[in-house]
Design goal:
alpha/beta, single chain, Spore Coat Polysaccharide Biosynthesis Protein SpsA, Chain A, globular
């Protein structure tokens, strides 16, 4: 099964992360990296791994970037990874043991979120389809992110992936603001009746940040992870605050109110 899988990674200035990601992929015959014209040492790091095929493409959006990458893969299966993903211990062994039937299109993978390399006991990061048959799947845009549409049955892998981003906080805040703009556009354009509970709460503008802070700390249990848990909870609350600000920006940038027209009595008087 390992010979039938190509890891596909998107990069843009991933010097703090890429080496650790690639170190867990020594089993792969070929790794496709699609880079958005990085200006740091991303390309040099990739060049240290002979099985990496490094392609450069100017970034337009994540959906187009992922679908371009899929077209560069030749194996039946693709393992899509962000550069800050690390395959957990046992992941390679689970891949080796897979024997999917022809009706299976994709496998979902769960995540352990890490702060400074420390896995937290809970996360808001959802499972996603990450291992899939190339000919049965395609990416589509969904708000600030992209979704993989699978034409067929799906299953779940038992071994998680570690999400361990080591980029500075300033970069994280910049990224979250970009995501917030796209998400605000999606929420604004979508009728409230068509949204799920989470997005309805976010669309209220006021409830999102405090609800996410409390939910992350207590329902996901990261308060038991000490300062790393607080860091993550504040990150998620800040992301929701940025979204609330972007939603307010849309609301405040609507048509300006018309100045009142004096009635005829006031004019004549």
């Amino acid at each position: 099964m390992l010979d039938q899988i190509t890891p596909l990674i998107l990069t843009c200035n991933e010097e703090p992360n890429l080496a650790r990601c690639l170190a867990r992929l020594g089993w792969a015959k070929e790794i496709v990296v699609v880079d958005s014209l990085s200006t740091d040492a991303t390309k040099q790091i990739a060049a240290r791994h002979p099985q990496v095929r490094f392609l450069e493409r100017k970034f337009d959006n994540h959906t187009a970037q992922w679908n371009f990458g899929l077209e560069q893969c030749s194996t039946e299966w693709v393992l899509s990874l962000d550069a800050d993903y690390l395959l957990a211990d046992g992941f390679e062994e689970e891949l080796r043991s897979l024997a999917p039937g022809p009706e299976l299109a994709a496998y979902a993978v769960s995540f352990h979120y890490c702060i400074a390399g420390r896995p937290l006991r809970g996360t808001l990061y959802p499972p996603r389809l990450a291992l899939f048959r190339r000919t049965k799947c395609r990416y589509v845009q969904d708000g600030h992110t992209q979704l993989l549409r699978a034409d067929g049955l799906t299953a779940a892998l038992g071994t998680p992936i570690l999400h361990d981003d080591r980029k500075p906080l300033s970069h994280w805040i910049w990224s979250q603001d970009r995501y917030a703009k796209l998400e605000a556009d999606k929420l604004t354009r979508t009728p409230t009746s068509a949204l799920g509970l989470n997005d309805r709460i976010r669309k209220t503008i006021l409830l999102g940040p405090p609800v996410v802070l409390l939910y992350t700390l207590f329902m996901r249990g990261v308060i038991l992870d000490g300062w790393a848990g607080w860091y993550y909870a504040f990150q998620r609350a800040l992301a929701e605050t940025l979204l609330s600000l972007r939603l307010l920006e849309v609301k405040l940038s609507g048509p300006e109110p018309q100045a009142p027209t004096p009635d005829s009595k006031a004019v004549s008087g």
